[in-house]
């Protein structure tokens, strides 16, 4: 009986995959005539009758990838059935939610992202809420999982190479998925839901994966002339700053890659020639094992980036630095402090003249009141001293004013 059951499940799995393969081999006329009822309908029927184990779930995901790519290739201008697309999206979302609660060491959630990438290309586009919810789940699986502890266990397992390769493939798929969704959405939700959450994580692996995703997103924005990414210039720079001195060498390089893309995007959006210097040549210094050399290199990059800073982004930048002081430690905190001082030294007079100083003083004062690391205090005191030299009365009044 058990053997018959296993055979039945294996047969369903093979049939699910076969229907996806048929879609890839069908002509345009056959695909339009048979896709919804005979292909997708049968796939969903077979899956609903299965025990939904790993084998059948992977078969479903592969078939979704197959018929989605087949429909896009053959019927690019045609619209896929919206209700059917919604049903498929619901199944994929439920799978992500299930694996968010279970063990992350599974190929299923990673394959879901690959399936979503293909499905999201089909017209009509997804709604804003569906897009946001889907991205949050994808990022929770791909960017925040596995944990540092789980990564160590994975590396010791027999399937380590296969899983890590799939993880890298899924990270790239997540980047491509964002490219598709960027066709109809602004970048606001992407940066808020993906970048900010994970770049300040205490998990080095999570920060690295967030940087990989961010670099892909910025590369797409640059390629497609999406200047709306500049709205996040201050906060993104503030988030990337500490990662130039991250313990993981790959993360340090990715942080510089993101900063370079951001500067080029801003230059194109503002129609200005921005003197960025050769940031790429400074990457070698970030590879040095000496943390002193890393910090010196980061400070050189700070001077280049801060020359291109528009004052309208000051508060966002300072808020991101505050977040680093609150959550980070070690060299990341020192890098954030160095960048903050560099920025204020270069723009202190302009800030005092053109901006309301009280929000900046409030940020510095709140950092002092919630101080967790003694290494922060010298930077904060120096920041207040710089602003006081630029405009004594306003700085003193703002510093002692209680909100």
Descriptive overview:
This protein has helices at residues 2-25, 28-49, 54-74, 82-101, 107-120, 128-142, 148-156, 160-181, 188-199, 204-223, 233-240, 249-270, 279-286, 291-306, 314-327, 331-354, 358-369, 376-390, 392-400. 76% of the residues lie in helices and 0% in strands. It contains 19 helices and no strands.
Annotation keywords:
403 residues; mainly alpha; elongated
Strand runs, count: 0
Structural class by secondary-structure content: mainly alpha
The fraction of residues assigned to DSSP E strands is under 5%
* Model regions low in confidence, pLDDT < 50 over at least 5 residues: none
Largest sheet: none
Q: In DSSP terms, counting alpha (H) and pi (I) runs of 4 or more, how many helices?
A: 19
Q: What separation lies between the terminal Cα atoms?
A: 74 Å
Proportion of residues in helical segments: over 70%
State Rg: 25 Å
Order of helices and strands: HHHHHHHHHHHHHHHHHHH
Mean pLDDT figure: 80
Give the arrangement of secondary structure elements.
Blueprint: H1 2-25, H2 28-49, H3 54-74, H4 82-101, H5 107-120, H6 128-142, H7 148-156, H8 160-181, H9 188-199, H10 204-223, H11 233-240, H12 249-270, H13 279-286, H14 291-306, H15 314-327, H16 331-354, H17 358-369, H18 376-390, H19 392-400
